[in-house]
Model the fold of this input.
Amino acid sequence: MTRKSPELILMSILERVADFPPVVSNIVRHSDLATLTFAALKFRVPWDLFLNDVYKDYITVAGDAMHPMTPDLAQGGCSSLEDAIVLARHIGILFALTGKIDSSALKGYAKERRGRAAILITMSYLSGWVEQGRSAWLKLPFRLG
Done:
């Protein structure tokens, strides 16, 4: 779906919310067509987390810069908070032990976060892929919980 007209976007959204309570479809129906746009969510493979360093000297990335993910698990903000806690813990422990801070704190942070971030990126994308698909049998395990 590239360059869809606002009318086509509106029709597509209404098809997707057909099973929702009427209040939802009414909100969609009364949307200002001038504000409707379509941008597909992209999956960015998490290989960079394993193949490259996400820090250099005293600089690192965190949050969406480290682990961009689709919103399907609603974990982007939580992951950013986890980043902050893990990074602070690594810096704090290093400072408590040595009285100084160097790049080894960032290295420890990156090493600890890469596995969890890769899993969340992948699972979020897969969850959205299944939920947005038309196949009911694929959706069933996600709706049983």
